[in-house]
Amino acid sequence: MRRRIFHSAGWGIVLLLIAPLIPARAQIVQLNQLALVQANQPLVQETMPSTGGPINEVASSPNDADLGEQQILKSSETSQPFSAFFMTPVFYTSNVALTNTGVVSDVVVAPMAGLFYDSRLTGNLYLHVGAQEQVFYYGNYTSFDFGSLDCQAGLAYQVPSLHNLMLRAWYDFNRLTNSDQLGNEFFSNHEIILDASVPFQLGRAQHLQLGLDANLSVAADHQSPRRNDYAAYATYTVNLARAFLIQANGQVVVRDYHQNGRTDVSEILSASATYQLTNWASISAISSFAHSDSNQSVFDYNVGNLGGTVELTVKF
Description:
Blueprint: H1 12-18, H2 24-38, H3 64-67, E1 82-87, E2 90-93, E3 106-109, E4 112-122, E5 125-138, E6 146-159, E7 165-178, E8 185-203, E9 206-220, E10 227-241, E11 244-257, E12 263-276, E13 281-294, E14 301-315
Antiparallel strand pairs: 1-4, 1-14, 2-3, 2-14, 3-5, 4-5, 5-6, 6-7, 7-8, 8-9, 9-10, 10-11, 11-12, 12-13, 13-14
């Protein structure tokens, strides 16, 4: 589920490529590219019980719909509530500015680091607290470089009597900065994330997860990029071997902007193949495609990303 369209005509796109990314349109470009990347990169999962597997498996995350999930086993004898990770996605993107004219492509390196704390509070109620930072470096169009910080806290509640329904409510603070200049902020957003998902075991090594997700912006320092996202998603996972899994995800997202009467509808397909090298290292091939339609056609676009990532994870 974790969480974000742009257009310019003629020479306008050229001007944007060489200008600092401060205007509202540029903020929206970065939010949408962030959402697309998160839709296909594996992410360290919190240590709640899985909604679809044995009690000693890592739970699916509220961002499973956007980012995918990994079924990494943890010790059932020792509690390890902390997860620290570092990953380095490298990918080709076909549409840097998420526009339908003047389209240009580029290669992006997007290192990411984070720390999560997850624990059982009582019964089927779980606590999640975490923070992560990801920086996007564009090979040619460096004016698009940006960083994204997320700080999260929330609860998850599992309902075994309703097919292991998992309900989640999180607070998320997102802060965008120019490149890796952490003190140079150009957009910040406070949002409430609500998610409900149901798992279906299709076989010993396959499962399907269906869910609904809402990201509700409650405050932001700039109003034009503010929006509420409403999504329906399906995620299919198959373990072809103990250390190798393939995952495919599809979602439809309605993005309702707070200003200018703008509404976008995005369809996103993503797929990943992950090989677990050790219990702390994995490599993945990642891909995604998005098609977005807006009630203001200047914001329509198509984009595809293709690449890979290496991830290091430590649980303690």
